Amino acid sequence: MSSFQSLIQGEKPVLVDFSAEWCGPCKMMAPILASLKSAIGEQATIIKIDVDHNLAAAQAYQIQSVPTLLLFKAGKILWRQSGVVPMEQLKAVIQRYS
Q1: What is the pTM of this model?
Q2: Which of 47, 48, 56, 61 could form a disulfide with 17 if both were Cys (CB 3.0 to 4.6 A apart)?
Q3: 26 catalytically annotated
Q4: pLDDT for 56 beyond 70
């Protein structure tokens, strides 16, 4: 988890997708996040964390349902939302904090 901590401490926004293999809505987020990455390029980093394999991270950020998306910058949570989030909304959130 130390590399995760160093990643979210940076000045570049980091969008973290807390998800699980068995989660249907999580599977719906995969192509949305792929489109988002194409749209924003290097403006932000997007990472996926499987809550079943990273219990400590899930507990640290009180992830109650998946998918839950968190946007970090300089180690702080700037935005958080659970459920499937449209690409345009994610893009707007990232651009607001870039």
Answers
A1: 0.95
A2: 48
A3: yes
A4: yes
